Amino acid sequence: MRSIVCMGPGHLAYQEINAPLPKDGFSIIQIKCIGICGTDLHAYEGTQPYFSYPRILGHELSGVIFQTNNKQFREGVAVTVLPYFNCGYCIACRSGKPNCCAELNVCGVHSDGGMVEYLQVPDESLVQNNGLSFEELALVEPLAIGAHAVRRAEIKKGEFVLVVGAGPIGLGTIEFARIAGAQVIAMDVEEKRLHFCLDKLGVQFVINPSKTNVVQELKTLTQGDMPITVIDATGNLNAINDSFQYIAQGGRYVLVGLQKQPLLVNHPEFHKREATLMSSRNATIIDFAHVMDCMKKKLIQPTTYITHRVGFEEMVEQFTGWLNPASGIIKAMVYM
């Protein structure tokens, strides 16, 4: 079958590989749509933490069941995949946090992913389609990342929430903070993305840190309080470190973006706020269900994120262009 393999930084290649064979406890999916995310782009750049090559990328997936012994599903049914394969017995799994399993295997990161015609996944990773299209199903996973971060932050109605980074993960975070009733402030250095937030997501407040004094702007917007929750969706070390100064007294800082290097924290400033620092890793089936419910209720219009659509045969040629912010990319979708 056809596959696309990231052989190393800067090198994608088409390869013919063996199709998966039926195996107890696993189902085979015929892939239909693959969303391209920051993890895929960072892997190509060589900047993705905890990554090894060669690797078949792709974990934002939709498809139809080709073969299964799972009694809750049948062949030919459209599904998406919870791509965080967990052990089921470590302390995180026993505590209801399989998204941060001690032996976590993320499809397309730690093991080969969905840029293939047929993908074998654990039976328990299958997620019912809930009447959604293949495009919508492939967007559930990236949106669930933001939904999980918002759930971690325990955002309350009316609170000011600053989301730093308006890429696909940041946009999803913005959407679910809005759905939770927050007053959302979006921050990014790309004007096109800030306009998208205003025009498509109904965000009230946007900040471009390259054009203004962020602290002063936040004080003005929040009547001097500063945001009670700050969520980083950049993974950029400077942005992460800078954002510690944006937290309100008693506030929360949630790291969604991942950075290889140590963080720099002004301890007295952080301590005097009695602030809470937390990470948000992946998502759970609870977050998937919430995202799909919001899609069904039209609280979110996920296909507006898709700015680039390409066939599988075009993907390698187009991929490098998606690294350039001038391309206007928000979400690229690849079709089998």
Q: How would you describe what is shown here?
A:
- Helix content is 27%, strand content 25%.
- With 336 residues, it is α/β, with parallel strands linked by helices.
- Strand 16 (306-311), helix 10 and strand 17 (331-335) form a beta-alpha-beta unit.
- Helix 3 crosses helix 4 and helix 3 (134-153) packs across helix 9 (285-296).
- The chain is globular, with a radius of gyration of 20 Å.
Helix content: 25-40%
Instruction: Spell the H/E element sequence.
Output: EEEHEEEHEEEHEHEHEHEHEHEHEHE
The low-confidence runs, each spanning 5 or more residues with pLDDT under 50, are: none
Number of DSSP helical runs: 10
Question: What's the total count of β strands?
Answer: 17
Question: Radius of gyration over alpha carbons?
Answer: 20 Å
**Shape by Cα distribution:** globular
Biggest sheet details: 7 strands, mixed
Structural class: alpha/beta
Ends apart, CA distance between termini: 12 Å
Beta-strand proportion: 25-35%
Mean pLDDT: 94
Please summarize what this structure is.
The chain has 336 residues and is α/β, with parallel strands linked by helices. The protein has helices at 38-45, 91-94, 134-153, 168-179, 191-200, 214-221, 237-242, 267-272, 285-296, 315-319; strands at 2-8, 11-16, 26-36, 60-67, 78-81, 84-85, 105-106, 118-122, 126-128, 160-164, 183-187, 205-207, 229-232, 252-255, 276-279, 306-311, 331-335. The mean pLDDT is 94.
